[in-house]
Amino acid sequence: MSTFLFATLDAGGNVPPALLIGGELMRQGHSVRFIGHPAQASTIETTGAAFIPYRSAAPMTPTVERPALRDIAMMLSVFTDPGIARDLISEARRDPPDLLVIDCLLLGALGAADREGLPYVSLVHSFYAFLDGPFRRNPISVMARLKGVGPRQVTRGAELVLVCADPALDPAADDDDAGRVVWAGAALDVAGPAVRPEHPHVLVSLSTTAFAGQPAVLQRILDAVADLPVDATVTTGPAIDPDRLTAPPNVVVHRYVPHTELMPHCSAVVGHGGHATTMRALAHGLPMLILPMHPMLDQPMIGKIVQEAGAGLTLSRKSSGAQIADALMTILATESYGAAAAVIGDRLRAAEGARRGAQLLEEAAHRSAA
Fold first, then answer.
1. Per the structure, how many domains does the chain have?
2. Is residue 25 in a domain?
């Protein structure tokens, strides 16, 4: 059996794919431990994996809203954090794993593993077309490249770039990278499609990370739903206090309810275009209305891809309540959106992305040990 050390960060949707793949590895008898931000301890330990907190990491406060420039500065600080890199290398030296599995956003840690000559994999939790496209060209990556830890620089020595995304949706899946970039499929724990209720029920969930203006967007969605013939459940996550919102009678607001409990009984999902939530909704066969919250992240690309696949619509975050209401009713009233989402859902579930991801990591660990 092999030993795996996952390096992660407290950024929301990046965590579930790593946990699901780690869980599959443990079920196969492998040893799995995670190193991450202290706030992640309980989430990771509930899976049965060992957890080591970063001790030298710069502060990360993903649930605190901040101006755009400070937001960019925070992301650059975390993604290239030398403290995270030092802690990872220290843990790898203390108890050497057969393979390091490093979140693709931890550019500094990836670069450190490369310099140390350790066997490592970059774990991509969204479309590779974003990571190797808009992300590589945005200000964060440009500044990281000047530090010697640009996205391509830090994966040159990787055993594998493991993409936890559906290759049929990822525009980059046809690119030739000499087999080094491999698609496992979206890592999900969805057993079957949703059973849509007779009276439409909509799940509304924006990011667990705080983005500027997010409470106002969420309130506009609530106002849009107020006069529609639907019921809705809203999950605000840690970034927004439910008391800041005014909910109409047909809406219930919670800070947190697992989406695994809600989506099987929904008709559609209104989201921000985060890869994890979007793929979970589509895996349930649910059409989507997407309002991207951050122009520099993967959300606009994901919204565009979902719309082009016919499984939903995408609106600007600045859309009016009337525009949101019209789009949502169009999705609910037009059978083609649900049909397209159902086809994608069947494919996502059949791919068993978490199991395939674990298998690819097993193979990479064996190669590195040979």
1. 2
2. yes
Neighbours of 114 (CB within 10 A): 18
Distance CA 198, CA 203 (A): 15
Say if residue 340 is in the same domain as residue 359.
no
Q: Comparing C-alpha atoms, which of 184, 136, 130 is closest to residue 364?
A: 184
In a domain, 172, yes or no: yes
* CA 332 – CA 165 distance, rounded (Å): 26
Structure tokens at 333: 């009233």
Examine the domain organization and report whether 224 and 280 are in the same domain: yes
Identify the domain containing residue 264 by its residue range: 201-349
User: Do residues 174 and 228 share a domain?
Assistant: no
Q: Are residues 104 and 227 in the same domain?
A: no
CATH number at residue 215: 3.40.50.2000
CA 273 to chain centre: 9
Q: Return the bridge partners of 3, or none.
A: 31
Query: Residue 212 in 3-state DSSP?
Result: coil
Task: Report the candidate in 345, 19, 74, 309 with the shortest Cα–Cα distance to residue 187.
Answer: 19
Residue 174 lies in a domain: yes
Q: Would you say 214 and 306 are in contact if contact means Cβ atoms under 8 Å apart? A: no
Q: How many whole angstroms from its chain centre is CA 100? A: 20
Laid out side by side, the sheet with 160-163 consists of: 50-53, 31-36, 3-7, 99-103, 120-124, 160-163, 181-183
- How would you write the pLDDT of the chain (370 residues) with one tens digit per residue? 999 999 999 988 999 999 999 999 999 999 999 999 999 999 999 999 999 999 999 887 776 776 766 777 888 899 999 999 999 999 999 999 999 999 999 999 999 999 999 999 999 999 999 999 999 999 999 999 999 999 999 999 999 999 999 999 999 987 656 578 999 999 999 999 999 999 999 999 997 777 888 999 999 999 999 999 999 999 998 888 898 899 999 999 999 999 999 999 999 999 999 999 999 999 999 999 999 998 889 999 999 999 999 999 999 999 999 999 999 999 999 999 999 999 999 999 999 999 999 999 999 999 988 7
- Could you tell me if 137 and 268 lie in one domain? no
| DSSP 8-state code for residue 159 | S
Q: Per the domain annotation, does 193 fall within a domain? A: no
